[in-house]
């Protein structure tokens, strides 16, 4: 009896990057590995989308469109290049209007993509209708998704085989066009028995020639076992990655699955020896990048607080950016309650990010004292219908904190009516900044907002890419204080690597013009002044990056006025005046990192 051939999509260069490096990888560094995979006979790659759209702009100072063009060139004209889309959220955390949803498909087709895997984290089929039509209308293959996870122990009401069957039937009944169906478990928590029964159900429900795909991660330690269950239940394809971006928070390694199938009635459509050579090339490509320890580990707590591999390392990298890794364990523990009370949306982007942001807020500010905007809007219905009704108490808190009423309206209709969303507001942003009105620029502005504009203006720099070559090397000899050389300066517990050469200083890889003089000049310094005992200090609420400074010294402010906007964990937080008075000093500038409790300004 001939063995059934199981198709493999290589996820190393998209999900692998997101799940290990927070999606922060420079294009030229990994292209040799793509070419090695092509030489090994691979023709199907995940090549962008998901976090690998915004991350190049935000961290790598690269255009995601340029990255896709270079990927196509390296993979060749016949390769099936696939990206990941989030339904009405397309490639961002916020949902979009219909014109932006359509522009997404048009631009990805233009830049070499052949297939878009498209999911909705709430499994609300309504959120797949417009995106599915646009993907198909622009000549792309549409791989529609049912998103999976295991509920935390003690929970029930969704994420059963029956729930997935209803979701799939809803997709079929809605007439959403598709070429294949993927069951996507981003947290890798689905019990293997449930995986088997779900794929077997889909095999009976779908036409015999419909390709069924199963996608998982090793985060909870059952990814490979889940793949075996899916294959034996009738799946035609599973996703595999390559070391160093495999196992742990990533997909199973292609060699691991090949080994697990030895002696079975199945074989993979790869040449394992050639793939192992390609894996060696990939390891060499990534040798200079920091490999976070949590990316290679199985996390026993994940079934209690289902955190997807791609979100786990993206969040730990952001926590490192903000010197907050000591809060990581607390955030993971806090996620369980957030998931239980939030309506059981699947823990996959953007919902996984909403879960983590709310857990983060509960740890930093106190339980339910501050509602993350995405989480609040989700429980209020602004992203569609959650699998089960959220906890009424949390809905009430979210409505009060966000000053929004719950809704059952179609979120795309709401977005179409929102004057801040869509192509026209994006065009206005370009015009305001004297930028060219190309379709690419329109989409960048609409999907990436101000950070997209900053990229187009040339204001972005490589930041947060943990590559050794981007980190200042320690000097051969210690320098005398105040002179040229290398220093480690600790401010409020945060270390800065500073390399001084003449009138230039490189701080954590970023270059600044400097001037050093003896003595202390009191006028115009950034220190916070306390002119009287009645001065009120404005303190940073958390470790964060200052995005905007909204006041100047001498301005009169009222209690509650917003003075600064800071960003941490992909959330913008307003820093408000605790009292009325006059701004007597400002100690934080846009672009600076601040530490929790650090003085940002004084009010007299």
TrEMBL record:
The terms under GO molecular function for this entry are:
pyruvate carboxylase activity
Locate the Pyruvate carboxyltransferase domain: which residues? 6-276
Entries under InterPro entries matching the protein? Aldolase_TIM (IPR013785), Biotin_BS (IPR001882), Biotin_lipoyl (IPR000089), Carboxylase_cons_dom (IPR003379), PCB-like (IPR055268), PYR_CT (IPR000891), Single_hybrid_motif (IPR011053)
Q: Which gene encodes it?
A: cfiA
Taxonomic path: Bacteria, Pseudomonadati, Kiritimatiellota, Kiritimatiellia, Kiritimatiellales
A cellular component term, taken from the record's GO annotations: cytoplasm
Q: Which UniProt keywords apply?
A: Biotin
Q: What is this protein called?
A: 2-oxoglutarate carboxylase large subunit
For whether the record's keyword set contains Cell inner membrane, the answer is no
Q: Which domain of life is it from?
A: Bacteria
């Amino acid at each position: 009896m001939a063995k059934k051939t199981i198709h493999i999509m290589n996820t190393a260069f998209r999900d692998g990057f997101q799940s290990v490096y927070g999606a922060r990888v420079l294009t030229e560094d990994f292209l040799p590995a793509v070419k090695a995979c092509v030489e090994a006979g691979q023709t199907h790659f995940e090549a962008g989308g998901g976090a690998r759209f915004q991350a190049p702009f935000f961290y790598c100072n690269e255009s995601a469109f340029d990255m896709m063009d270079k990927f196509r060139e390296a993979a060749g004209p016949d390769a099936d290049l696939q990206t990941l889309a989030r339904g009405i959220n397309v490639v961002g955390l916020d949902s979009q209007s219909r014109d932006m949803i359509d522009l997404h498909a048009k631009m990805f087709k233009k830049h070499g993509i052949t297939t878009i895997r498209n999911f909705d984290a709430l499994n609300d089929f309504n959120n797949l209708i417009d995106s599915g039509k646009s993907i198909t209308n622009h000549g792309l293959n549409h791989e529609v998704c049912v998103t999976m996870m295991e509920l935390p122990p003690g929970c029930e009401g969704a994420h059963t085989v029956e729930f997935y069957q209803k979701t799939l039937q809803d997709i079929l009944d809605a007439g959403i066009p598709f070429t294949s169906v993927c069951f996507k478990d981003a947290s890798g928590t689905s019990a293997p028995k449930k995986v088997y029964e779900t794929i077997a159900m889909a095999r009976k429900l779908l036409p015999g020639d419909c390709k069924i795909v199963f996608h998982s991660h090793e985060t909870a330690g059952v990814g490979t076992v889940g793949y075996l269950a899916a294959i034996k239940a009738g799946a035609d394809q599973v996703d595999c990655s390559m070391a160093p971006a495999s196992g742990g928070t990533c997909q199973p390694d292609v060699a691991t699955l090949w080994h697990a199938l030895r002696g079975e009635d199945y074989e993979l459509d790869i040449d394992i020896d050639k793939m192992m050579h390609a894996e060696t090339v990939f390891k060499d490509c990534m040798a200079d990048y920091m490999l976070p320890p949590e990316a290679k580990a199985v996390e026993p707590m994940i079934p209690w607080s289902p955190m997807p591999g791609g979100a786990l390392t993206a969040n730990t990298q952001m926590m490192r950016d903000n010197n907050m890794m000591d809060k990581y364990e607390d955030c993971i523990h806090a996620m369980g309650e957030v998931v239980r009370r939030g309506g059981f949306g699947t823990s996959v982007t953007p919902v996984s990010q909403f879960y983590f942001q709310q857990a983060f807020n509960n740890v930093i500010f106190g339980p339910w004292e501050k509602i993350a905007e995405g989480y609040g809007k989700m429980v209020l219905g602004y992203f569609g219908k959650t699998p089960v009704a959220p906890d009424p108490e949390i809905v009430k808190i979210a409505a009060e904190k966000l000053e929004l009423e719950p809704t059952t309206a179609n979120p795309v209709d709401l977005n179409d009516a929102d004057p801040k969303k869509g192509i026209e507001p994006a065009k206005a942003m370009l015009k305001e900044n004297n930028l060219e009105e190309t379709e690419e620029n329109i989409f960048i502005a609409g999907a990436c907002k101000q950070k997209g504009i900053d990229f187009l203006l040339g204001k972005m720099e490589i930041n947060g890419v943990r590559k050794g070559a981007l980190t200042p090397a320690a000097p051969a000899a210690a320098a005398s204080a105040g002179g040229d050389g290398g220093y480690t300066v600790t401010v409020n517990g945060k270390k800065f690597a500073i390399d001084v050469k003449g009138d230039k200083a490189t701080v954590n890889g970023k270059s600044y013009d400097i001037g050093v003089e003896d003595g202390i000049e009191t006028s115009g310094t950034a220190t916070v002044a306390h002119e009287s005992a009645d001065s009120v200090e404005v303190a940073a609420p958390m470790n964060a990056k200052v995005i905007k400074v909204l006041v100047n010294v001498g301005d009169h402010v009222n209690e509650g006025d917003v003075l600064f906007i800071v960003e941490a964990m992909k959330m913008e937080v307003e820093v408000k005046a605790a009292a009325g008075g006059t701004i007597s000093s400002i100690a934080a500038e846009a672009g600076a990192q601040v530490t929790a409790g650090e003085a940002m300004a004084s009010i007299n």
